[in-house]
Design a protein that fits this description.
280 residues; mainly alpha; 2 domains; 66% helix; 0% strand; binds heme C
Length: 280
Amino acid sequence: MYRCLKRVLFNRLCYIIYLTMITANIFAAENIPSDTTILKNSACIQCHEKQNSALIKSWKKSIHAKTSPVVNCVSCHGRLHKNMAAKARHDDTCIACHGGKEDPVVHSYSLSKHGILMQLEKDTYDWNKPNILANYRAPGCSYCHMHQGNHNVSKTVRKDIMSNTGVENVHYYTRSVCQDCHSPRYITRLMENGDSMLEIARKKVREANALIKQAEKTFSNKEMAPAEKQFKIMQQHLRNVDIGIGHQSPDYQWWYGQPALDGDLIRIKDSISELYRNKP
Ligand code: HEC
Ligand code: HEC
Ligand code: HEC
Ligand code: HEC
Ligand code: HEC
């Protein structure tokens, strides 16, 4: 009697396990879209929220989720569920939307050692590998800005070039990327140098700003226009120093950065002293 009961129970158990396996299989098959289904962005978010809600959250925190139009899943991954990660890792994904080769963001990187190595070697890389553990000899855009699949590209960028607010966090996160390939000591030195380089650039901007603010008390908007215009150009040159540091491009730190700022400051000084000279 007991034996018989045991056998029945066992058979039932097997049957239940078997059924569960079938249903799980059906769900799994439903869970991965086929290679040929054209997907909407809302579908990516809906399904991947269940797979990995942290990923969706990190994307939502990034500037990409806040610009208009939004840089969404399909902007980088495309609409077909095939080689999705490999496609997005490639520099071309980012460059096309970041202003092309001429844009300072892209140009500064192309002039760096990383950009040059990437240009030479990109066709030999296996883009299916994740952005970790020096899987690529040189880092591309996504290796630095989306390291370990982190979709918050803003983590590696300081919010305000004119101040050091939040810079420790940016340095902390960026450091973990660089140290896949470089020694901690080397990166510490680079970050310190970068910060002092940026501080030298900020001093020039502050000096120009103080001169303009002082002169504005005496002169009209129209008279101040040339100095104000030069000050706007100065902001672009300050940004060149910043991305020169971030992208390890000596050309952007020096050629397009510091000397350009010196030139701006001289022009602003000249323009304001002329106003004082001609004052009746
Ligand atoms: C119905 C659910 C579902 C939808 C819709 C969906 N995915 Fe997925 N996706 C999955 C599952 C499940 C995996 C994990 C597959 C695996 O591990 O092989 C996956 C894997 C991925 C991967 C990693 C692939 C790799 O090569 O490592 C990326 C990237 C991805 N999806 C992006 C997207 C994007 C972008 C969309 C919208 C265009 C999307 N998915 C729509 C379920 C979905
Ligand atoms: C469809 C367009 C588009 C694509 C594709 C795109 N971006 Fe962006 N990205 C933007 C816009 C718009 C901004 C916000 C304005 C700006 O900084 O230029 C931005 C900003 C950024 C920022 C600055 C973050 C901040 O907080 O200031 C980084 C870093 C970045 N993107 C990296 C990448 C990387 C890496 C890729 C490729 C994996 C990429 N982007 C792909 C449009 C795009
Ligand atoms: C070696 C790592 C690395 C690589 C490779 C890299 N970046 Fe950056 N990038 C940085 C760092 C670090 C900063 C932040 C500088 C700062 O704010 O101090 C930055 C800054 C930026 C910014 C913000 C600049 C601004 O003022 O708006 C954008 C956008 C950006 N990168 C996009 C890209 C794109 C696109 C590529 C590829 C063409 C790329 N990056 C390649 C590390 C990298
Ligand atoms: C700016 C471009 C960009 C956007 C926008 C973007 N991704 Fe990604 N995604 C990437 C890159 C690059 C990788 C590879 C990261 C790595 O190798 O560490 C990736 C990896 C992934 C993976 C694999 C993660 C893993 O750790 O294996 C999934 C899943 C994914 N993305 C889903 C999405 C979904 C869903 C959205 C929309 C909410 C989205 N992505 C938006 C560029 C992007
Ligand atoms: C995936 C590996 C990898 C990552 C990540 C990486 N680098 Fe590099 N880096 C290289 C390689 C390879 C070279 C070329 C070395 C050489 O000159 O032979 C290089 C060169 C450099 C150089 C130029 C050195 C010289 O002699 O001119 C600097 C500076 C640099 N990296 C800084 C950084 C910083 C800062 C980060 C993080 C934001 C970083 N790297 C992230 C691999 C990497």
